[in-house]
């Protein structure tokens, strides 16, 4: 049995080497020279028996074959000339985007009118000197930027809960494959 395996392997290696050698020789052959057909090299000449034997005392006339002329080789073919590389068409210069007009400022709103002053009572005049003076102009309201509150996810068990079913599924699959392999080995 081992000899059969060795013989098969040796045959495969020999076939691979022969195929590789044939490819190398085919690639090395010049392309312009016509190759002789393979059948002409392997033909056998049949000897035809003669009907009457010729007397041995007379020399046989030998026919001289006509001289064979070697096949004329075609002139070497010149590779086709490649056209000069074409230059790509010129690209137009990049256009600048139109300038946008500066943003217009909203018209200023007139300050709100203050109500006419009411006569001050005497009680207010006798107030303590630490009393603050209230301005009558209304302050302009500017929107205060509010920072977005990052959403916090619960960190206790969130990654483990997402990957746990996948791990259990992989473990079950591995156990099934192991059981099938064990059955095949015992059978």
UniProtKB/TrEMBL annotation:
It comes from the Bacteria. Residues 153-187 form the Gram-positive cocci surface proteins LPxTG domain. The chain crosses the membrane at residues 162-182. Residues 56-118 have a biased composition (Pro residues). This is Gram-positive cocci surface proteins LPxTG domain-containing protein. Residues 1-19 form the signal peptide. Keywords: Cell wall, Membrane, Peptidoglycan-anchor, Secreted, Signal, Transmembrane, Transmembrane helix. Residues 120-132 have a biased composition (Polar residues). PROSITE patterns: GRAM_POS_ANCHORING. It comes from Roseiflexus castenholzii (strain DSM 13941 / HLO8). Residues 44-132 are annotated as: Disordered. InterPro entries: LPXTG_anchor.
